[in-house]
Write a structure and sequence with these properties.
Rossmann fold, 13 helices, alpha/beta, 2 domains, eight-stranded mixed beta sheet
Length: 294
């Protein structure tokens, strides 16, 4: 079982996305008629009673119908993806009620409060780890799913130009990708919308360059992030592990913020603290650390 544990205090932040109204969901499922919906809305007007509560009390629906519609409304129902063959690693889409995904929503709430709050210049975030194999790419992919489930236009950028993983997690083609865009050999058509997951796109890493750190250090990468910021609310950038290469520091300086992923019972707290200190010393905001266990 996969599990993440946020080291910071978890704060759940509710935020509306582009969800269907619960009445429309119940009508589409054949549980209510449009006439019944109008009756419920008339009763609801001027009160603080919830739509579902009134529908249940009037005997129009069962509580289970309301609960199922609420899960569907906020993107937590597996039924959304029933007709889509999603990769098993996307647990946030295939098993949305699992403890792992609940923990991800807590992490999402923290990030929305501390970084993705609409402040200009705060739409991109780096995700790194102390060592390779800590699960940062897996965590980031599923974090992208839960942001997209809120209706946030979300982009995952695979800037791990040494051991790219995002195209494997999402089962996407890895053609020219980020390295092709930065080298001038490709354009933003390399961004791929994830089939079956609304509001989520991925820019794979592309061919492995001989000079990844230099490529990521070019001004073009910062300019590219600015372009992304005009199109996406949430940009999550995957980096190599910090002990593997200094690429993570280069990328984090561009995004100006980072979260660090460690593996439970493997990553030492002293290593997390040391890495956080290095980032902080270079002006990067540390938004938190997360432990992953399998």
């Amino acid at each position: 079982m996969q599990k993440i544990v946020a080291l910071n205090t978890s704060i759940d932040v509710s935020r509306s996305g582009r969800e269907m109204k619960i009445g429309a969901i119940l009508v589409s499922r054949g549980v209510l008629t449009t006439t019944q919906v109008k009756t419920i809305l008339d009763i609801q007007e001027g009160t603080d009673r919830r739509f579902g509560e009134i529908a249940v009390r009037k005997g129009m629906v069962k509580q289970k119908d309301v609960d199922d519609a609420l899960r569907l409304q906020f993107g937590y129902s597996n039924e959304i993806y029933a007709d889509v063959n999603l990769p098993p690693a996307l647990v946030a889409a295939t098993n949305a009620s699992s403890p792992f995904v609940e923990a991800l929503r807590g992490l999402r709430g923290q990030l929305m409060l501390r970084w993705f709050d609409g402040t200009p210049g705060q739409s991109a975030l780096s995700v790194t780890s102390v060592d390779r194999g800590d699960g940062k790419s897996f965590i980031m992919a599923n974090l992208g799913v839960v942001f997209a489930q809120l209706g946030e236009q979300t982009l995952i950028v695979d800037a791990d130009l040494r051991h790219p993983t995002q195209h494997k997690i999402f089962n996407l083609k890895n053609q020219m990708g980020l390295s092709g865009v930065l080298s001038g050999r490709a354009n933003l058509d390399e961004i791929i919308e994830v089939p079956g997951v609304h509001n989520l796109s991925v820019l794979p890493a592309g061919p492995l360059p001989p000079n990844p750190q230099e490529l990521l250090g070019r001004p073009q990468f910062g300019e590219l992030l600015d372009v992304f910021s005009s199109r996406y609310n949430v940009i999550l950038v995957d980096t190599p592990s910090a002990q593997e290469a200094s690429d993570a520091h280069v990328v984090a300086q561009r995004t100006r913020a980072v979260i660090i992923v460690g593996r439970k019972d493997k990553t030492k707290s002293s290593d997390l603290a040391q890495l956080a200190g290095i980032f902080s010393g270079s002006g990067v905001q540390i938004l938190g650390a997360t432990l992953n266990s399998i």
